[in-house]
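Quick start: read one record
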Amino acid sequence: MITPPDRTPLPRDFFDRPVLEVAPDLLGRLVVRTTPDGPIALRLTEVEAYDGPNDPGSHAYRGRTPRNDVMFGPPGHVYVYFTYGMWHCMNLVCGPEGTASGVLLRAGEIVEGAELTRKRRLSARNDKELAKGPARLATALDVDRSLDGTDACTTGDTPIRVLTGTPVPPEQVRSGPRTGVAGDGGAHPWRFWVADDPTVSPYRAHVPRRRPR
């Protein structure tokens, strides 16, 4: 008998821990996005940890700015950033308030509301590709900067909630370098994913962007 995923919301103290504890523990959890057309639920299969001032790859490495303000807490909030002038990416803030650590949601399996997601991800060749990559995940869940700062742990109405789901056993969790991170933080094995899951995005090392001559 297959036990259905636990749909109990994760409490704030789940996120009020070191980022390297929270990140692998998010695998198998459910992210539920409430939209005017109906709910979309995603099972997390790949994440990356970013450790604020201790991490050259983090947006908060050089301190607090208007862009990264949400990263400084409280934990359990959504941090959304815009990148390359075209894509949004979604993170979950963790650690004690003021620490500016967070987990990038890199990939997942759409387990509810796939018909809504397909309308946003017309280039996906199949449902396994609907949220295969951080920008695709945000697009699939209709996440943009308007949701930056959303409290995913509130007991009231919220457009995004993180539920207990079915945690992944430690023996099924893999780790390796983060995708596309350059410099001193490039080698940190802070990307975590579910072994052999078809929704996990391919690893890509950082490639310096060439400036026109």
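The two ends are 63 Å apart (CA to CA).
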